[in-house]
Amino acid sequence: MADAQQLVVSVRGLTKSYGATAVLKGVDFSVARGEVHALLGGNGAGKSTLIRVLTGSASKGDGEIVFRDPAGAVHSEAEGRRKVAVVHQELALLPHLTVAENIALPHF
Ligand SMILES: Nc1ncnc2c1ncn2[C@@H]1O[C@H](COP(=O)(O)OP(=O)(O)O)[C@@H](O)[C@H]1O
Ligand SMILES: [Mg+2]
Fold it and tell me: Is the distance from the beta carbon of residue 81 to the nearest atom of ligand 1 less than 6 Å?
């Protein structure tokens, strides 16, 4: 378990439903500074939904999302979300741009 001061995002008990379909049923995870994680699951498991909720492009149900900076200061969800960059599935990539440019694209 990472030092709490090193956590950049922690998610506790996150839920999300679309109508009667419960997609996220109490998701707990955290990411510490410098860590690389892979989110694995079959089609329809809820991976994209989790990322959309984390980044605010879908509303969340219950639960808590806490963003911190590397020094441990806690940020509002809205502010934290501005620090998260998402590269969506390959159809949304621009092949003539660099990886860094693709990551930064939403900021232009
Ligand atoms: N906007 C939406 N409206 C209704 N159901 C949705 C919506 N987005 C995703 N779902 C449903 O949520 C479940 C998880 O989908 P998704 O997060 O896209 O899974 P994954 O990315 O793991 O393949 C699926 O059953 C999908 O049909
Ligand atoms: Mg997906």
Answer: no
- Cβ–ligand 1 contact at 44 (below 6 Å): yes
Sorted by where each begins, the domain ranges of the chain are 4-107
pLDDT tens-digit series, residues 49-98: 999 999 998 999 999 999 998 778 899 888 888 888 887 776 678 889 99
Selecting from 3.40.50.150, 3.40.50.300, 3.40.50.2000, 2.60.120.260, what CATH number does the domain 4-107 have? 3.40.50.300
Q: Which ligand is nearest to the CA of 39?
A: 1
Q: Could you tell me if 68 and 7 are in contact, meaning their C-beta atoms sit under 8 angstroms apart?
A: yes
What the block records as the tokens of 36 is: 């690389």
Tell me the pTM: 0.84
